[in-house]
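Input:
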Amino acid sequence: MSADVTERRLAVLRFLVAAYAAVWSAVRAPALLDPLAFADRRFDPVGPLGLLDGPLPDLVLIGLVIATPVSCAVFALGRFPTISGPVAAFAFLVVTTYRNSWGQLFHTENLVALHLVVLAVAAYTRSDRRWAVDAMAVLTVGTYVVAGVAKLRISGLAWLDGDVLRHQIAFDNARKELLGDVSSPFAGWFLRQGWLLGPAAVATMVVELGAPLALLGRRWALGWSVMAFGFHVAITVFMAILFPYQLLGVALAPLLPMERLVQWLPRRSRDLTEAPEIKPVE
Amino acid sequence: MRFRLRIAGPVVAAVVVVSPMLREPTNDTYPLSTYPMFAFDRGVEHDIATAVEVDVDGDAVRLSPKLIAGTDEVILASVTVKRSIALGEAELLCGEIAERLGPGRTVDVRVETVDVVAFITAGVEPSGIDVKARCVG
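Output:
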């Protein structure tokens, strides 16, 4: 990948990831502010906030929830990237960590937070930033590998016979119904097709443990990305669980030739640093 | 220098993202997760903690996660009820839910025993209900 292609791809990635984070944190702002009404006894800090001995002051949380979409949007538009990048990465990491600090860990924003950190660091380097594109691709692939390995470590090869998957789908949908949430209308049908569950479990493992193949080249990346996208569509259809970062393709973007989209970006956001503007694609 | 950065960047990213594999898979955190959420065999029969409104006929009316735990996240609502029962705080939670529902409404915090596969595939109702707390708003 030439330096010019790298810069274009990185500019597109920066725009996609930061814009996603901006929209997500704006849309989810009410949920991010829910802890204002939670009882303090429910606070169970994790990760970077693990040392907190009590909930954040209300004004701090409100400030962070406002700062997150604003800084992410500024970063997406390429304004003051050496400031907006770190602020966006920090604010997003803190608000999502805080969201996870009330007794339940979610697994939908991890990759967004990690990608933002790489982009923020990349804003401080001015030449040959292929490392940043590659690092983001490795982070995407790595999360799938870790998920696959967890299945093998916890359930062993028994995970492949389909029963674990059947019980997971049934439990998740039953819990949703008992707690007044929307469950999948297709789950019952799927679980009655017993013959499908084994192949579905094997396909899941192929996607997760086969993820590193996506690093071998463009065709491998495209092939694996299609499978990973299908995997998340299936999770949405049969478990009513949304992984929007993956379903919108942003999580997979570091693996793909996104530089072709550079002409669609707002003019100012085509540049990752305050360096001269990158020439448009021929 | 450039070459070293080109190699070191992805290597550091790889080490960071797979580092959770050095922990027990059940020792999860954020943002560096072990992603254990679909890894367990949960089995068929479950005791699921929930909260319902009890209407004037004594029938259970399902409540939303927002009413149960002040959130639209169903998993967080589920964990909130489960933890409250485990910590002996079912009465406290029951009172909070009743307050959200409004005056004169009856709330049960309870555990329902369910064959989750039969429930989803054939609509088989829970086989047992254990009321942990009842309160009136």
